[in-house]
TrEMBL record:
Its cofactor is NADP(+). GO terms for molecular function: GDP-mannose 4,6-dehydratase activity; NADP+ binding. The keyword Protease does not apply. Keywords: Lyase, NADP. One of its GO terms (biological process) is 'de novo' GDP-L-fucose biosynthetic process. It comes from the Bacteria. PANTHER family: GDP-MANNOSE 4,6 DEHYDRATASE, GDP-MANNOSE 4,6-DEHYDRATASE. This is GDP-mannose 4,6-dehydratase. It catalyses: GDP-alpha-D-mannose = GDP-4-dehydro-alpha-D-rhamnose + H2O. Belongs to the NAD(P)-dependent epimerase/dehydratase family. GDP-mannose 4,6-dehydratase subfamily. It comes from Pseudomonas leptonychotis. Its EC number is 4.2.1.47. The keyword NADP applies.
């Protein structure tokens, strides 16, 4: 018999790639979707899976809608990818971020505990929980020091998952994912902002790219690779927490160089440093150690940053060219 999975945040970047992966594995895929006036399913259409998913209206901030979705879907696995996921916006909406990214996790865990205790649960944790890093390379034992409302809310979600696993015996795992990008990433994220600008400037539709701290270092990978690690976590006999990363760090400056070189331009001629894009509390560097995921899950990233940036720029060139 095929398994059933419920994905919160199914219309987001990770949700779309995970839905595609699970459908390819023969899963019956359900998605939790919030009511929105704008089109939120374009990523699912982009991957050709929109019509293959059963949708449940609900919101992570509303416990009743979560319970209804769990009872109706009867999932073998739940992947909590829903979140207010943009760090910058968390400073403007700290309470909303706390409720959705923190309390929303509790709503899911409580629904599992009460109505589906055999369901396996995946929590999307984040490298932003490390914030002001306490070790040169961050792994599962590195102390957390979040530097944004987003990081703080996600840390609550992470620790409440650990507590429900240890207190109630739930199969609940957390993936501490470092930055993972794709052509499906939202335009507000720096990787898409860079790839989109490179395409627009090349096509004569934009003249400059305004950024904040371009010397910030991040560990960037491809979202399509990272969703496989999520799935692998829920196939293990014992639930656990895993860092998912490439183990390589790159500056925003270097990323700009790659993107603009791909379209035959010099980024230095177009990038403008704008103080308004600096964070109230900067996170200068994040670098993951994925050794545990490699050893226990057999997972390694397949896509290099240069390949990822080329993929994103090419997608933006096609999209902007049609405007």
């Amino acid at each position: 018999m095929s398994k059933t999975a419920l994905i919160t945040g199914v219309t987001g970047q990770d949700g779309a790639y995970l839905a595609k992966l699970l459908l390819e594995k023969g899963y019956d895929v359900h998605g939790l979707v919030a009511r929105r006036s704008s089109d939120t399913r374009w990523r699912l259409r982009e991957l050709g899976v929109e019509g293959q998913i059963s949708y449940h209206e609900g919101d992570l901030a509303d416990a009743c809608s979560i319970q209804r979705a769990v009872i109706k879907a009867k999932p073998d696995e739940i992947y909590n990818l829903g979140a207010q996921s943009f760090v910058g916006s968390s400073w403007d909406q700290p309470v909303t971020t706390a409720v959705v990214d923190g309390i929303g996790v509790t709503h899911l865990l409580e629904a599992i505990r009460q109505f589906a205790p055999q369901t396996r649960f995946y929590q999307a944790s984040t490298s932003e929980m490390f914030g002001l890093i306490q070790a040169e390379r961050q792994d599962e034992n590195t102390p957390f020091y979040p530097r944004s409302p987003y990081g703080v809310a996600k840390l609550y979600g992470h620790w409440i998952t650990v507590n429900y696993r240890e207190s109630f015996g739930l199969h609940a795992s957390s993936g501490i994912l470092f930055n993972h990008e794709s052509p499906l990433r939202g335009i507000e994220f720096v990787t898409r902002k860079v790839s989109d600008a490179a395409a627009r400037i090349k096509l004569g539709k934009q003249t400059e790219l305004r950024l904040g701290n371009i010397d910030a270092k991040r560990d960037w990978g491809f979202a399509g690779d990272y969703v496989e690690a999520m799935w692998l976590m829920l196939q293990q006999e014992q639930a656990d927490d895993y860092v998912v990363a490439t183990g390589v760090t790159t500056t925003v400056r270097d990323m700009c160089k790659l993107a603009f070189e791909h379209v035959g331009l010099n980024y230095e001629d177009y990038v403008v440093i704008d103080p308004q894009f600096f964070r109230p509390a900067e996170v200068e560097v994040l670098l993951g150690n994925p050794g545990k995921a490699e050893r226990k899950l057999g997972w390694t990233p397949k896509t290099s940053l240069s390949t990822l940036i080329e993929m994103m720029v090419e997608a933006d060139l096609r999209r902007v060219g049609k405007e």
